[in-house]
Specification:
This protein is 15% helix and 39% strand. By secondary structure, the chain is mainly beta. The longest helix is centred in the first third of the chain and has 15 residues. Bound molecules: fe (ii) ion. Fe (ii) ion binds next to loops.
Length: 267
């Protein structure tokens, strides 16, 4: 979900994730000693990248990317079920993991691995669209919209603002991707009821004035009800502790912009 400001949020200022280092490798994709065929994982991320890396925009682009995203699996991002259950990637880590895959001025692609019982806390993506695909696991997704009247002073750390919970559901993999729009469900949190892997696409990425803010319930439901939607009061809070920490991407490289050399965006 994050880059620039969010990278600092998740990984600290000295994080290697904050450096977009491009490297070349040969055209074979070797993943932990195993060859990953081009027609398996690589194709899906490459197709997503190529679709995003055009001048297209709007619903047509979203629908095209979502259709590809719906075919994505753990293997497409260089992971297997055993990786999530085993000790290799955790090595004593208590926090969830953030695996950046690709970054351009137009979009970000990344994977979050959320440990069972952990959450991505309530946060926003100002003026951004988020496409998310649960690759593995089970989680509870909640998303909110601001009540228009309360948005006038949104941003104050000392004031609460009303929001409507528009989505509160459990998602179990495999499941279709979901979409958060700039003004529809943009505030959201994810709670992993099983260890989960989520492939995220941000359009556009954080940065250029788009900063991630965090919120918490200032008052448990219910300030009232409007139709069937729950109204809640949310308060902006400082960056919470325990945010996901960087983990390197080891999946298939992506060939960019006419280059025949596959690139890794992060090391
Ligand atoms: Fe998010």
């Amino acid at each position: 979900m994050l880059l620039l400001q969010p990278v600092r949020s998740f990984f600290g200022k000295s994080s290697s994730a904050a450096r977009a280092i491009f490297s070349r490798s040969n055209t074979s994709c070797v993943l932990r000693g195993r060859h990953l065929g081009r027609d398996s994982g690589e194709a899906v991320l490459q197709r997503i990248y190529d679709s995003l890396n055009t001048d297209r925009s709007g619903d047509d682009l979203i629908e095209q990317v979502t259709a590809i995203l719906n075919t994505a699996t753990l293997r497409d991002v260089g992971l297997q079920e055993g990786d999530l259950a085993g000790d290799r990637i955790w090595k004593g880590r208590q926090q969830s993991l953030y695996i950046p895959i690709a970054h351009t001025s137009k979009f970000d692609i990344a994977v979050f691995i959320i440990k069972k019982g952990n959450s991505l806390p309530l946060h926003d993506h100002p003026d951004m669209t988020v496409l998310s695909k649960l690759l593995h696991g089970k989680l509870r997704l909640k998303s909110f919209d601001w009540i228009e009247d309360s948005r006038q002073s949104k941003g104050s750390a000392t004031t609460v603002h009303a929001a409507t919970c528009i989505n509160d559901r459990e998602v179990t993999a495999p499941a279709d991707a979901w979409r958060l729009g700039p003004h529809n469900g943009n505030l959201h949190d994810l709670e992993a009821t099983e260890t989960s892997a989520v492939l995220d696409i941000l359009l556009p990425p954080y940065g250029n004035g788009r900063r991630c803010s965090y919120y918490k319930m200032a008052q448990d439901p219910v300030a009232g009800n409007r139709g069937n939607a729950s109204l809640v009061l949310l308060k902006q809070v400082p960056e919470p502790r325990g945010l996901p920490e960087f983990y390197p991407y080891t999946g298939p490289s992506i060939t960019t912009g006419g280059s025949r050399s596959p690139k890794r965006f992060w090391q």
